[in-house]
Amino acid sequence: MLNYVWLGLIILGVGTALTTDIINSGSNKFRNAESLAVTIILPEESHLQDKTTLAAEIFIPGKTFYQFYNTKIESDVTQPAKIIFSNNGTEANLSLKINKSSPEIWKEMASGPADKKELQGTASYIQKISGNKFQAKITFDKISFTKMKEVTNSTLSIAGDAVTIALGLIGIMALWLGVMKVAEEAGLIALLAKLLKPVMKKLFPEIPSDHPAIGSMIMNISANMLGLGNAATPFGLKAMEEMESLNPQKGVASNSMITFLAINTAGLTLIPTTAIAVRAAAGSANPAIIIGTSIFGAGCATIAGISAAKLAEKFSLSGLKFSDWIKSNLKILFGIILSIAIVLVLAFSGILKLAFSLLSFLSFIDFRDIIGTISVLAIPVLIFVFIGYGAIKKVRVYESFVEGAKEGFNIAVKIIPYLVAMLAGIAIFRAGGAMDWLIQILNPITSAIGLPAEALPMALMRPLSGSGSLGIMADNLSVYGPDSFIGILVSTFFGSTETTFYILAVYFGAVNIKNTRYALPVGLFADVCGILGALFIVRLLFS
Description:
By secondary structure, the chain is of the alpha+beta class. The protein has two domains: 31-142, no CATH class; 154-316 and 323-542, no CATH class. It contains 23 helices and six strands. Strands 1-2-3-4-5-6 form a six-stranded antiparallel beta barrel.
């Protein structure tokens, strides 16, 4: 499945980019070879000597800019530039510095890294108006294949980022798998597994209750629920490695692997620290208000993901008799229906609204301090407890730690090819403009269910990219306000779902799984249910 999805991302991204560039070239969107009337404002007492570089400002009335590019603009344009005069000051080469306030069409035309974009061109017919102001006509260098250039730059950039991410995992992996090895030899993991045996046996019947995979999964799920993503990943990768040791079909995802990843892609977190921190930085009066809504949304995703995984592993097309299938899966179906009924009853009875209003009280005692305290203490306390328990049980903690750390190094290096492949495919899809087209296609459907168009990019980006969705959330909070309906909704989206494609690439890549079976549909189904659950509860409480 991932093979076809990855290929589709690349084909759609490149195809969309090429189509857009051809359309732009045919309509001469960027006005190649055409001159734009501007006013050049130089520093006081500047002398127009040949080959002299001067800092300047380019001023264009909004009406003139609109007529030239036929694009909407809300105000006049003032842009910093560097100018090198020639021919006795009647001509010049210029370079415009593109920044956040620049017109969108200039951002699209500019080349260079995101923080150093520039537009190159020439100025002619330069004539003095008064003082340090000159009128001129500027013609930019020919602009073509902007989308394809963006695809190239994004692909090369993300490939380097993927390696950086993987190498950055080496230290974290070594640390946590070293700690995990000590806890395992001390018997602490077995103790935790024993306590949760009834639940784990139902979720993962293929795995013996005393197998090391159970302990790794427990630690992964616990770390995720506490918002400790840097600790959750090593535990998750170790769990995948242990499950692969039990897998009768090497290279093919087992049922337990898919169920485990369904839980991870659901992103159930009790404290969505990142979203709360971004909301606090954006000036929210109550940044912690999304805790309840995020738990609700992630809870919907978790129930949906586990249910979908269990139904998919039971479902068989060969010799299927629908009545027999219903009977054999009656307990699962009953559980799903009961869960949905409980959620709807609680929601419409107003109990959830009361619970969330009680949670919001925590903001008055500075919830940020509570989150900060948990974030600071959680990891040192875990390390202290695990290593301390090992010492009490007479484990040779140093040797055990080093042995576990070696495994962490090998796993982190192994995932690099898989991470590069998946992130590159996503980068091509985004940079080529296929994401924008998808938003336009889906907008009528999402509007019908009450999902605002402003929040749709966040809903679509979240399964693809963590950094991309974080940027979209921050932008929405800045534009609409952190405590607006849109602000709360996108924050809840961020706290209710996870980066499905990243998780599948990393976790399956760590154990060389090539046939992922139904893992991707299950993960995406969980994402959709998380988004819908978040939309439902936010509209219920804040619309």
